[in-house]
Structures are given as structure tokens and as C-alpha cells.
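Shift notes (night). Ran Spermidine synthase while the centrifuge was going.
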Amino acid sequence: MTLQARKPVDDGEKAHWLAVRPRLVLASAFMLFLELALIRWTGSNIVHLSYFTNFVLLGSFLGIGLGFLRVGRSRRQPYYSPVVLAVLAIVVLAFPVTVDRDTEGVLYWTSLSTTGPPAWLILPVIFCAAALVLMGPAELVGRCFPELPRLEAYRYDLIGSLTGIAAFTALSFLSAPPVFWALIAAICYGVLLVPRPRSLYLGLVTVPSLAVVGLLLTETLTAGAVWSPYYKVTSKPLTVLGVPVTDIAVNGIPHQQAVPAATRLQWEAQYGLPYERAARPPQDVLIVGAGSGTDVAIALSKGARRVDAVEIDPKLRELGGSVHPDRPYDDPRVTTHITDGRAFLERGGGAYDLILFALPDSLTLVSGASSLRLESYLFTEEAMRAARARLKPGGTFSMYNYYRESWLVDRLAATMQRAFGHKPCVDVVSTAGQQAVITAGLTAADQRCAAEWPGAAAGTPPPADDDRPFLYLHDATIPPLYLVTLGLILAVSLIAVRVVAGPYRRMRPYRDLFLLGVAFMLLETKSVTGFALLFGTTWVVNAVVFAGVLVAVLAAVEVTRRFRTPPLPVMYAVLLAGLALAWLVPNAWLLSLPVPLRVVAAVTVAFLPIFAANVVFAKRFAETADATTSFGANLLGAMVGGCLEYAALVIGYKGLLVVAALLYVGAFALLPRRAAATV
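Came back to this:
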């Protein structure tokens, strides 16, 4: 199956000094790199986006789809992209905002203060700006597609996307501040946009790009921040009640304080209660959420002979090692593990007298998953059973935090009761903010409660589980805030598509490709959340999963290009069989496997339907009459899929497989008869 390249649609492309294939790879890498950078950077300055990373992601998908649909409708270079990026940088740095944590249906921990412009004003600006910024690189990618055979163009697009992920992952590993992201963006704009006429290029490309670099350099030099793969971490020394402490904030939210153990125990009784509720003094202690080290220092002060300190963020651990007055991480009794707490529990190994969840509130979502926080899988019934399995005879498990709602305290206590088989100790230290400690012994005899917990109040939601790990969601519903926001996003997207791409009838022949995009986004979400459960919600796992998805897509394209594959009806059947397999294989069975076997099984279960889905897409895409319009329709479908991810709040992540299967059946039903018969 060989397709002839078509004549370029843009006369300006003929003058570009870079050949089409390397230009396509570079533009695709830049497009994905810029998307990831926007998500990270805007979330660090507009705290609302730390909880709604999908907001920028949806704007990016809209912009990418519009960029492809714009190809052929304009011969002008997309000089608007660097200009909008510069305006966005100015707005974000001039008007940073924090989240309104009193919003109905959404529960946040930490401070209740709100600063900056209201969410209803700043969020539409961010969404539209993200779409316009990403539309530029997408248009540059789209202009390369008509110059190459369909699948060859798609192949180089995927290679570029993998390159973009690798570049951003490398910068995350090096903890590079955003000024380096801006430098890469400036270089890519400079290389990809044709400098003709030069005065226009200088004013619309060079000046805005350098302005973004300058703004982010100023932020880097003045904020005193270190950039972890999750947060912008800032710290400053304070004196509180005559005691020197270090105050630590992440993404602008007060997060932790490095305080001497004796002082912390004096100020807040909750820190000592896990040790008082234990039947015997704990010798071997596991602390999940060790952070800057105060909880570790308290464990040492209580006589622990061995402390395993688990912290997901390497920079928070480094900061604790350098600023904590007790220097707990220098103690030879302490071993640090930079990993996800649930993954550490599932790994097996040593047993403990005390396992402590020490305020593990991440304040951020997992990139690519609309409602999954970094700590979501710590508070499920399965996680507490995993903790119980790591206790020594006579051991105890405990957690504390400022839970803010009494129903949340009851929910966690009921979860612990179900996991341990008896009522836990529940100490509400302060009703203001529901500061509470919940402790359960391996048996009822292994705990010392001040009073018996009366049980969960009527109306308390059931324990969260690994399929619906949404601890802070009271009911199995999509909060009204999300419904209104997603409705507005879809309405704006419909208008934008009509304005930029013209009549909708252009995309009518590619309705099946649109549905393929919707379904594939749900598959990707299921993969991200599934691997987060099986191997941890760390940024490394997240990057590997995204790269793995692209590798599976690239493999499907290469197989389709080089070999004769079964006709589309057969491939749809293979796809549905893969979805059925993913539905039937329980997470509990995968978690019970040794890690090497777990990797093999998880990759097989997750990537079989992804591979089959992309063979379907590749075969269909190869025969389309209009490469850019059909690809744009698929990308817009991915944006709708990003909205549909929120259905997991109601039906769970496993339920997304059913929705995806229905969408694939719909795509097959809309498949043109000629394509079904010949491809």
C-alpha cells in the first residue's frame, strides 16, 4: 500500500531551509514539549490548575486540532503563537491565583485564603491561551503532512512526540527551572518559523520569544525556588513563638514546616498520639510522606531503632536534609526511599511495629489523569490491607491530618475498620479543621483508645477503592463545577472549530476517526491510572507510560506500513477482545505478582488494545482523502475524550473500558463501506 505525496499546500513552506522530515520531527517534539511545559508552569503559578491539570490539557488538544484544521486555509506563518505565549507569561506572572477551596463538591486541604483574580476570569484566559499557543506548532506539523505519504508523516510525528517527552523528562530529572523550557521554546520558534519578511519575524517571533525567556529568568532568580518534578518548592526561615523554623510552600501554597521534634510535639498533640495509641513502643517504623523530616525526627525521639522514610518528591527530601534543625536524615537509623507510598507497601520486604501516613497531601493531580491525585491510592481499602500485611505481630497503623470535614474522618475510620476487622481509635484533636488521628492495631488488643469510636455517622460514603480512589468526593457524581466548566469548554470548542476550520461538513466523512480519538483518550487515561496503581504515581512511571503508549502507537504504524494486516472488521474484533481482557484481569491479581512478572502482565493487558486501536486508526487514516482534516478530527475527538474522563468519578476507571468499547463499536458503525471492504 503506497500513497503518493501531494503537492505542498503552502508556498511559504518551499522556502524553508529545513527538509520536511526533520522539520516534522522537530515541530512534533516542540508541540508535545510545549504542552507539558505549559501544564507544569501554569500549575505552579495558578494553584487552581494544580488540581485541574486537565484544563490546560483540554485547551492544548483543542489548539492542536485547530492547528491541523487550519492547514490549507491560510498561507501565513503562525506568528501568533509566540505572541500569545508572551502575553500568557505576562498575565500569569502579574496575576497569580490560588484556589477557592470552598467550591461545592471539591475538597482541598491546607489554607482557605484566595488571592488574585477570580477563577471564572483567569481560567478562560488560560484555556484560550493554551489553545492558541499550541495551535501554532500544530499548524507547523500539519503543513508537513501533505508532503509525505500518510503513514510516513504519522510515523515522524510520533518520533517527534517521543523526542519531546524525552526532552521534558530529562529536564525534570535535572530539576531545570522554567527558564530552560523558555529557551528551548525560543529556539524552536526561531528554527521552525520562516523569517520572511524579516521585520515581521523580528517583531512577532524574536521579541516575544526573548520576552518569555526574560520573564521566566526573572521568576527563577527572584522566587528562590527549586523545581521538583511535581512542584515549584520555595522555603524561607521564620521565627514562630520564639522558635526558628523553615516554612516550605509548593506551588504557592503553605505545605510544611521544618520544626524541631520537641517543639512540634508541644505545639500539636496529634504528632505524639500514634505512639501513645500503640500497645508497645515501636522499634521499626515506616513513615509515608516523610517530607522535610519532622515526623522522622519525632519517631527517633520516641526511641525508634529503624525508620524507613518514604517521600515521593526528591526536592522536599533534599530540603529537609539541609534545613531541618534536628538533622533527622543524617541519623544512621534512617533510610530514605524516594518513591510512591503505595508502591513501597506493595513491594514487600520488611515488617514494622508502626506504619504512619504523615499528612501525605500532595496538592496536585497526576498529569494525564483528570481526577487522580498523587496520594489517591494511599487511602483506599486495598491500600490499608497492604499496610496491615506489613505490620509485625502487635503492630499498629496510624494516619493524621487536617481533614476539614467530619464525614471524611468517618470515611477513613470506616475504611480502616473494614481493612483491619475491628474499630480503630479515632482522636479528633480539634474540631476546627477536623484535626484528627486514626489508629488501628493489628488486632483490637494492639491499640489503646482513649474512648471507643461510635462508628461512622449516617450518610458517610463507603470506603474508597482502587477503582474509584476519590477519597474527597462525597457522592458518586460529577461535581456541578466540573459539569458547567466542561460544558463551556465544549461550547467554546464548537465555535472555535467553526471559525477556524469552516463548515463542519469538512469533517463529516471522518466521524469514525473522531470517535476513535475519544475512545483512545479513555484508553490512555486507563493506562496512566492503572500503571500508577501497579508501580506508583511517580513522575518517572508517568513519563514511562506516556512514552510506552507512543511506542505502541509507533509499532502499530510500522506494522501497518510494512506488513499486510487483517481487514478492519477483524482488527476491530481484536480491539474489543483486548478491552474484554483488560476488563477481566483484576488489579488485585496483578498486584500479587512479583514485579518483573507484573510488568510483563501489565504491559500485555494495557497495550494490546492500544496497539489494536492504532492499527485500526493507521489503516483508516492511510486511505483518507484529506490528511490534515482527518487527523484534526481525531485530535478534537481526543479533547472530547479528555472531558469524558470525568465519568470515572461515577463509574470508576474500569468503567471507562466499557465506554471506550461502546465508542469503538460506534466508530465501526460509522466506518464508510468502501473502507470496511478494502482496508
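The longest strand covers residues 391-402. The chain has three domains: 1-230, 232-361+381-446, 478-679.
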